[in-house]
Amino acid sequence: MTPFLRNLLILAGVAVVIVLLNLEVAVITVGLLLRIAFIIAIAVVAYFYWRDIGRREISTWPQRAAYVFYAAAALLLVDIGWWTLGRLQGRDLVVAIFVAAGCVYAAYRTWRDQQRGAQGTDPPIEPISQGRPEGPIGQPCDSSVTAHNQVHARTTVASCPADRARNIVADAAKSYESDVT
Q1: How far is Cα 104 from Cα 15, in angstroms, rounded to an integer?
Q2: DSSP state of 99
Q3: What is the distance between the alpha carbons of residues 172 and 181, in angstroms, rounded to a whole number?
């Protein structure tokens, strides 16, 4: 017996049991409960996504954009609930589809506008210079430290990131050499 035939026989057996024991009402009730459970599961996943990612980002948006986004999401939630629990047909189904499409469009457009606005306000990133490393004000770092001027250079140019890193590496190498010997 093939798996396909076996599965068809199992389904036929379940259908016979439902008909013989007059359990049609129970099956309809279980189907309705599963629909409600599915809607709740989707709502919980959406809430966790919003809590972990969306809330921080949306809190930085202007108030009007946040209201439009949240209103579109709430109307979409009501529309999906109406669609799932109402068994829509004909005009009601067409209206539900248009409302859902409008909600998705409004939310996406608001999100996209805020993303583009955020990208335009960031300062431009300057290319990394290929020459000597620069200090905090754009002044070149004094990286030519001689042996007799080493202490003075550490105190005067310590704010330069390149010299700071060089000093940390030199101190670590000295510490390692003293530990080994």
Answers
A1: 40
A2: H
A3: 14
